[in-house]
Design goal:
Elements: H1 21-32, E1 38-39, E2 43-46, E3 55-56, E4 66-71, H2 76-87, E5 91-96, H3 100-106, E6 118-121, E7 124-127, H4 132-141, E8 147-149, E9 169-173, E10 180-183
């Protein structure tokens, strides 16, 4: 087989010139350590007031109805939550990933408060199956927190099957002491 040297437009990127898994995980770890200044989508960090963790917005402020939802590729309830948000006027882009634990760590979500999936909405993290009235309250009030989370996969929550058996407790995501944001 004859090899010819390629130049300019004819050159294609070889697999070795693309960033590897270690480089990507290293970049995520750097962001989790607070060393990065840009992330997801390249938008600037904001919501860095008192008690807040540095946060990468998924879109510029002012387009509050845009959502980027990160989910496990095999999870169907996350698709149900995306459909729920769409039915309430949000434009949702779903991003399958096996790196949800790294994202939880990056955004400062304690292990016992980790949600099923993560949504980036107008500069906030919304973790799990949070009812839209609580998301709307977050976007209206704009508190100086990283976001909110509904831990686990509670039955009867938006996108989940089953009957709601107890009120949903939604927590703030912040560097400070654990605080309840809403009970619905």
């Amino acid at each position: 087989m004859k090899h010819e040297k390629q130049t300019g437009r004819d050159r294609t990127r070889s697999a070795s010139s693309l960033p590897g898994r270690r480089a990507i995980l290293g970049a995520l770890a750097a962001g989790a350590a607070g060393l990065g200044t840009m992330a997801f989508g390249g938008w600037p960090l904001h919501n860095s007031g008192p008690g807040a963790v540095a946060l990468a917005a998924d879109q510029p402020t002012g387009t509050a109805r845009q959502v980027t939802l990160y989910k496990d590729p095999q999870c169907g309830c996350c698709e149900g939550y995306a459909d729920y948000l769409r039915s309430h006027g949000f434009k949702v882009s779903v991003v399958p990933t096996h790196d949800l634990p790294l994202l939880d760590e990056k955004y400062g979500i304690p292990t016992d408060l980790q949600p099923c999936h993560l949504s980036l909405i107008d500069g906030y993290i919304v973790g799990g199956h949070v009812p839209v009235e609580v998301v709307d309250r977050l976007l209206r009030e704009r508190p100086e927190i990283t976001g909110i989370t509904l831990p686990g996969m509670p039955l009867g929550s938006p996108g989940m099957s089953g009957q709601k058996t107890a009120p949903f407790t939604i927590y703030e995501i912040t560097k400070g002491a654990r605080r309840v944001y809403a009970v619905v």
